[in-house]
Amino acid sequence: MRNSLAYVALGANLPFGERPPAANLRAALGELGRRGLRIEAVSRFFHTPCFPPGAGPDYINAVAALSGAGRGAGDILALLHEVEALFGRERVQRWGQRTLDLDLIALDDLVLPDLQTWRHWRELDPERQRREAPGELVIPHPRLEERAFVLVPLADIAPRWRHPVTGRTVQEMLAALAEEDRAGVRALQTA
Fold first, then answer.
1. What is the residue range of 26's domain?
2. How far apart are CA 39 and CA 176, in angstroms?
3. What is the pTM of this model?
């Protein structure tokens, strides 16, 4: 079995115990490594506006490239959910506040579960997006091209990664976003 490269978006806007959101992301990366995913690259950490606006404190976001050690998409997703749970993540509200969010945004050049299903979720109108979530893993993430909080950090580590459906690179997707969206994603100042 080949060694897959997974791109995982990390985010947090709530502390977990005494640990602030940025520390949650660092600790989660360590936990993913202990569980057998090799960290190939990690973007800088970014301060990003809460999505949707007004839903809570702003986020700290990053993207990591992880070698899957021969794991399939479902196994990687299950591992991400296990790590989220260790950090107090409860899935009670779509797009709600969270101590840790780990999203599998892409795995190699796979389109799962199939192109028709991917297109359905990609083209879903915004109001239905707020209420509905897929019952199965859909990758690449259907909203990837719209989200500066994913594309800006992804451009740090994989600017030439090409979307397997649209054929656009991360750089091209990022350039297509409104300047206002890109400007809202600011590199976290480190001490």
1. 5-187
2. 29
3. 0.92
CA–CA distance, 108 with 164 (Å, rounded to integer): 9
Compute CA distances 86 → 52, 123, 126, 143, 149, whole Å: 25, 33, 31, 26, 24
- Helical (H) or strand (E) element with 85: helix 73-86
Instruction: List the CATH number of the domain containing 173.
Output: 3.30.70.560
**Is residue 127 classed exposed, middle or buried when 0-12, 13-18 and 19+ CB atoms within 10 A define those classes?**
exposed
Residue 121, CA distances (Å) to 71, 76, 131 in order: 24, 21, 12
Give 91-143 pLDDT, tens digit per residue. Answer: 555 456 789 999 999 999 999 999 999 999 999 887 787 777 788 999 999 99
Phi and psi of 187, rounded to 5°? -60, 135
Residue 135 CA to residue 116 CA, distance in Å, equals 15
What is the number of domains present in the chain? 1
Cα separation, 131 vs 149, whole angstroms: 21
Tokens of 155: 């451009």
pLDDT of residue 190: 65
Write out the two tokens for 119: 């297109």
